[in-house]
Amino acid sequence: MPVTSVSSRAPRTRRRWWGTLSAVAGAVLVAIPLTMTAEASVPPPDPGWTTVFADDFNGAANSLPSASNWIYDTGFGYPGGPGNWGTGEIQNYTTNPNNLALDGAGNLKITPQRDGAGAWTSARIETQRTNFKPPAGGAMRIESRIQMPNVTGAAALGYWPAFWALGSPYRGNNWNWPAIGEFDIMENVNGINSVWGVLHCGVNPGGPCNETTGIVANRACPGASCQSAFHTYRFEWDASASPQVFRWFVDGQQFHSVSQNQVDATTWANMTNHAGYFILLNVAIGGAFPNNNSGTTTPGPGIVPGRPMVVDYVSVSTSGGGTTTTPTTPTTPTTPTTPTTPGNPGNAYATIQAESFGQQGGLATQSTTDTGGGQAVGPAGNGDWASYPNVDFGSTPGRQFVARVASGAAGGVSGLVEVRLDSRSNAPVGSFAVGNTGGWQSWRTIPANIGATTGVHTVYLTFTSGQPADFVNLNWFTFGH
User: Fold this and answer.
1) Phi and psi dihedrals of 289, rounded to 5?
2) Is the pTM of this model over 0.70?
């Protein structure tokens, strides 16, 4: 949900205005993901497609949706993340059946409520699974049949229902949005008869996805209004095409698409080369998107509580290709294990101290309070770099990059830490995005995928941002298989 007039939710992109996403599972987390078999009310997949996840929300009235399929987000933000979920929305998310419950007739209801003191509550859920993506050379569909809250005009001013997906690296790292990608499959505000589809990517603000707005399109629901009837909202990621393409549909009618060649190769890789995506459903009250589409602060004085978003089912299906592989989680060192000397880092899979660079541009060494002692480099900003010669990846390909970083960057300032091999002008083999972590000595360990790498290389770490301000300190980094 970006903060612009058109749409968006910066993770909710919603949390996009937020510049960075906050992330990690909400207060309630069930550790074992489970895929349900599609039930009768979930439409069978089209010929050539296979259902890989489905929930038709069958169950007793006033019960919660399956904890095997869903995490229940609670409160005013992810632990350690921005307040108000990064978007300015004002509600408190709960698991109270008044806010989140099956209706006993095969639907899920997410219902905003307001108490006598004027405080709002609502609900937000996200899938346990975080690996929804197409098989190599295939395609994926994420779909839901939804009736938006049936309220319009002044009574709807501040309603913000959404059905969307976030890149898996967001879970466990509150600072990598929008680089990890966000697909807003259905967003709506203020009871307007329109569905917004949005892609968030790159850096915030600006970048290839024009953050915090995102790459956006919208249209009225076909036939009956979005509020008065159920409509089917679908997102497709077609990796069988060249270039690949994202597509958005309502009731089978395409209204938005983004092609791979509309963004640079690094941006595309950052949002597609990780394990996949997780799916979210929520109804927010107030925030940047409703404000920007009304020209006023929401919720408005005439808003009424108690109008639910009703969800019939959620399904994910895939077509073609081979078996989707999930990247392994890198082994992340908690403290440096092998010392490195300036200009001779050596083993790629040992901890490489940031200050052991051979050459650098724009950086300085500094003391650090981080565990393990040593020195850090930074603060780094757009165009800064450091090189580490003779890094040996061996004959088994390295596929992971892990770095220890901290940032006291101002709100809305973020950038990319990129890995390049043998030349600063070569394309990055991997990267992650980072913004404010709570301070220049507030350290976080952040993982990222890289292209398979073997042999001995000079590793270049480059720092790229859409703003001139410094955005990160670096203490150490390493690689993994």
Assistant:
1) -65, -50
2) no
